[in-house]
Amino acid sequence: MEPSVSISKSTRSGATNPVYLHKYYKSSQQHKLTIDLLHMNFILYVSIAVTTVTRQAITNVLFFFIHVIQIRTTAL
After folding, report:
1. Which chain regions cross the lipid bilayer (predicted)?
2. Residue 72: helix, strand or coil by DSSP?
3. In which domain, by residue range, is 59 found?
4. Domain for residue 6, yes or no?
């Protein structure tokens, strides 16, 4: 009778309970998936921001060169 009490104590703590381990593994996998999705969203947003800033910078440089060319042609 004594060993069954010790076994029930160990399973009650959840350390050796397979159901508890499965739930913990499942929740950790879901947590990992959530982190992966957040990481992918972060990469997506950063890439969108970088392309937008780069596009804006290229547009500004082009307009600046066009402006300089217009000033030079009107000066001639």
Report:
1. 42-66
2. helix
3. 16-75
4. no
